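Hey,
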Amino acid sequence: QQKAILPPDVLDYFSGDWVGKGKFTTGKEIESDFSFVPDLANQCILVRQKERSPNTFEFIALWSMDSISGDLVMLLTSNHESGARVFRSRGWQEGKVVFQSDSELRARFALERFTFQRESATAFHSLYEMSFDNGKTWRAGDSQVFTKNP
C-alpha cells in the first residue's frame, strides 16, 4: 500500500514563491506568480497561480497522492467559470512532472496538460497544453520560465 505523503523531492523542490515570464503561442507576453505551500504534515501542497495584469487567469490547486495508485493528483479550480478539474501525474520522470486531465473530472472544452520541467534548483519551465481530439494531438497555450524567490 502506498503512503499518502508527497515525495520529498516534489515538496522540497516546489515549496516557496516563484515568478514567471513567457509567451502565449500567439507571441503575446505573459507574466505569472506561483506559490507552493505544503500542508497537512506534507500530505498536500496548496498551489496558487495568478497571471499578472493585463492577463486575468488564475487557479488554486491541491497536489496530493492517490494512496492506491501512487499517482500524484492535482485538484484544480480556476476563475472564468471553468469549474473543477482533476489531473494525474506519475511524479518526476526525466526531470518533469506532467499532469494530464483525468477523464472523470475535466474541462468542458478540452483535455489539458501541465508540464513542469526542472531547469535548475531555482528555475523551472512550465508548459500548458490543450487537446481538442481526446489526446491525439496537443496544442500549446503558453510557456513560461519560473524563478524561485530567495
